[in-house]
Amino acid sequence: SSASVSLMLVIALLMLLPVLVGAESECKACCDLTNISITVESEECGSCFTISTMSCAGLCQTQERAYRSPVAPYFQNTCNFREWRYETVELPGCPPGLDSSFTYPVAVSCECSQCDTDSTDCGALSTQHSSCLAHTHY
């Protein structure tokens, strides 16, 4: 009967609910903290070195419209820093009197949100390679 089919459908949906709710939390490529290396070149100090730090990377759920209206705003979430702190290292090989400190951001937590141009470079990543051939790793 149709009542038993409806009941079976409700039971099946209830059984799938924990799977559907937990799907995002088990996402292997979701927006999260990740280790990255930043190569820093200092012409003034004559040195190149690599810093290991934390950043945010991964996928964010989005729904892109088939038609972009010139009237309706279009927003797409990307993986961004939610919270961060700054760390400072001393550049090796700097002459006396030159400020040898280099400060960089360290991600503490991440979120899917619109890119905040006040705190983030929202443009495309640079494809230029560093001219550093040999460098120190921090």
What would you say this structure looks like, in words?
The protein is of the alpha+beta class. The protein has a domain at 28-62 and 73-121 and 130-137: Ribbon (Cystine Knot Cytokines, subunit B). 15% of the residues lie in helices and 36% in strands. The protein is built from 1 helix and 5 strands. It has one helix at residues 2-22; strands spanning 32-42, 47-57, 78-90, 101-113, 136-137. The strands form 2 sheets. Strands 1-2-5 form a 3-stranded mixed sheet, with no helix packed on it. Strand 1 (32-42) and strand 2 form a beta hairpin. The protein is elongated, with a radius of gyration of 23 Å. The relative contact order is 0.22. Residues 19-24 have low confidence and may be disordered.
Largest sheet: 3 strands, mixed
Helix fraction, binned, reads 10-25%
CATH architectural grouping of one domain: Ribbon
Characterize the overall form. elongated
Q: How many helical stretches?
A: 1
According to CATH, what is the topology of one domain?
Cystine Knot Cytokines, subunit B
What strand order characterises the main sheet? 1-2-5
Give the class from helix and strand content and strand pairing: alpha+beta
CATH H-tier superfamily of one domain: Cystine-knot cytokines
Distance between the termini: 70 Å
Note the run of SSEs as H and E. HEEEEE
Top-tier CATH class of one domain: Mainly Beta
- Strand portion: 35-45%
The average pLDDT value, as a whole number, equals 77
pLDDT below 50 for ≥5 consecutive residues: which ranges?
19-24
Rg calculated over all Cα atoms: 23 Å
Protein name: Glycoprotein hormone subunit beta domain-containing protein
GO biological process, one term: positive regulation of gene expression
Function: Involved in gametogenesis and steroidogenesis.
Pfam family, one: Cys_knot
